[in-house]
# Entry
Amino acid sequence: MRVCSLFSGGKDSTYALHWAVLKGFNVACLLTLRPGRTDSWMFHYPNIEWTKYQAEALGIPQVIYYTSGVKDLELIDLRNALISIKRDFGIEGIVTGALLSDYQRMMINIVAKDVDLKVYSPLWRKNQVNYLRDLYRHGFRFILTSISTMGLNPKLLGKVLGINDIEELINSALKYGFNPALEGGEGETFVVDAPLFRYELVVEDGEVRRLGEYSWVYIIKSIKTKPKVQ
# Structure
């Protein structure tokens, strides 16, 4: 089946793409929705412009569509994007990294059904603690690019998370009551290496900005590529 993979550059959409390839789907393209505001209900915002480097590392064509980021209106943008992708790439379905958000999953399913596309959400309702550990075990490496909750250590921003960092994140989630996989918007991630990447990405420069008492963002300023160690 020819599909497109909704792609934000974060751990969940990258893992869902990985699943699709392993299951034998023909991933015709990556579809990235770039919101015009930081508080989009549906789509990832921080550092979305750097996803082009990930698409190049994956060797999969990327289509970027602008969306207003306004609730309800962004669903119209998604519908128009899917209609265009279906026409141009001949896709029959879409793959999503939806993990726990009922709103996100329901909205995607409604829009996809309206344009006659099947939806595959392989991460839906996975145990989030096990999932985070599995990500590391399977070779996914990512940085934390935003924090929007009490209990997450800002020192983790911009750092490629090792297994000890992941365990720290899990312990903080259990202590403070936020979602360990950050699905509730408590944080955002950017993948710098994955099994399907032909080379690693290295964030050379970035800046941490404080937005509020428990709100921080890491702005990527430059990225370089690095050959993988065989």
Q: What stands out?
A: The mean pLDDT is 91. The longest helix spans residues 73-89.
